[in-house]
TrEMBL record:
UniProt KW Transmembrane helix keyword: yes
Signal peptide: none
Transmembrane spans: 35-57, 69-93
Coiled-coil ranges from the UniProt annotation: none
Transmembrane is among the record's keywords: yes
Species per Swiss-Prot/TrEMBL record: Microbacterium oleivorans
Organism superkingdom: Bacteria
Stored SUPFAM superfamilies: MFS general substrate transporter
Keyword annotations from UniProtKB, A to Z: Membrane, Transmembrane, Transmembrane helix
Name assigned to this protein: DUF485 domain-containing protein
Length: 116
């Protein structure tokens, strides 16, 4: 005896599995991943370069740029700047590209639920 792999929602409910497999939802996920993954890779490379330089290139990181400000301090502060820049970039991207798609999906779901 084999179990059925079909999924159907209870009466009066939306089939969220079907929604997840729909073209608009897949497009939303594709756009999200297309933005997030490259930035994640770039940031992690930048972060690990900083950590590795701090551990293995201490003379380089200790070089003074002006006064008591060293290369290591500038790179460390650069981590914060990068984090804020990525956050602001993601918010702008989400507002412009992701939110309209998710609003369409949400409106469709609300309409289906109201009609169910």
């Amino acid at each position: 005896m084999t179990a059925s792999h079909t999924h159907s929602p209870p009466p009066g409910r939306v089939d969220y599995v079907a929604v997840e497999q729909s073209a608009p939802f897949r497009e939303l996920k594709r756009k999200h991943r297309g933005f997030v993954w490259p930035l994640t890779v770039v940031f992690l490379v930048w972060y690990f370069v900083y950590v590795l330089l701090s551990s293995f290139a201490t003379d380089f990181m200790a070089q003074r740029l002006w006064g008591d400000v060293t290369v290591g301090l500038v790179f460390g502060l650069g981590q914060f700047v990068t984090t804020f820049a990525i956050t602001m970039g993601y918010v702008a991207f989400a507002n412009r590209r992701l939110d309209p798609l998710s609003a369409e999906i949400r409106a469709d779901l609300e309409q289906r639920e109201a009609g169910a």
